[in-house]
Amino acid sequence: MHAPPVPPRRERAGPRGVAGPNAPLAPIPGDRGDGAGLPPAAFFIGLGLTAGAGALCAWSLLDTLSQRDAYVAAPAEAGYHDGIDAERRTVIIGSGAGVLAVTTLLVGIFWTRWHSRRTPRAAPSPVADLWAAPGGAGITLRIPLDGRF
């Protein structure tokens, strides 16, 4: 008995089509590594839309329960169909609110740029100079304020 032949090793594609074992792998789509992403406002807009959809769902649920109570008090075929329509409406709105909530959560966790793109610059540091001259000596202290107090 013989083992099956070993398949040929696949080479990684490098820059300009150069292949080799040390060639870099292709980048992950969407991961540019340069701080790219959605601004935090996108997350907060999603949060507001989710809250609005949740409030609309709560209203629809209360209206559905009200229609149910009206049907129990006075059963009629029209009331029955109105209740079914209200229930369907509530399920659709609730499903939409759920999709918005999950999407907003994913945007907030994975696709929002919560940090600034700018590299923080170092604060200027104070400089002290000691000097001596034939007429005396002294110290000069320079504190750059750079517009900040």
Task: Give a verbal description of the structure.
The chain has two helices and four strands. Helices cover 46% and strands 12% of the residues. It is α+β, with helices and mostly antiparallel strands and 149 residues long. The protein has helices at residues 40-73, 77-111, and strands spanning 12-13, 19-20, 127-133, 136-142. The model has no long low-confidence stretch (mean pLDDT 81). The chain is elongated and about 110 Å long. The protein has a domain at 37-111. The strands form two sheets. Strands 1-2 form a two-stranded antiparallel ribbon. The chain has a two-stranded antiparallel sheet with strand order 3-4.
Question: What keywords describe this structure?
Answer:
alpha+beta; two-stranded antiparallel ribbon; 2 helices; 4 strands; 149 residues; 12% strand
Secondary structure elements and pairings:
Layout: E1 12-13, E2 19-20, H1 40-73, H2 77-111, E3 127-133, E4 136-142
Antiparallel strand pairs: 1-2, 3-4
Helix pairs in contact: 1-2
Number of helices: 2
Q: What is the strand arrangement across the widest sheet? A: 1-2
Extended strand count = 4
User: How can the largest sheet be summarized?
Assistant: 2 strands, antiparallel
Query: What percent of residues adopt helix (DSSP H or I)?
Result: 40-55%
Beta-strand content: 5-15%
Radius of gyration: 33 Å
Q: How would you state the average pLDDT, rounded?
A: 81
Shape, per Cα inertia axes? elongated
Give the uncertain stretches in residue-range form. none
Task: State the end-to-end distance.
Answer: 83 Å
Give the SSE order as H and E letters. EEHHEE
Task: Label the structural class.
Answer: alpha+beta
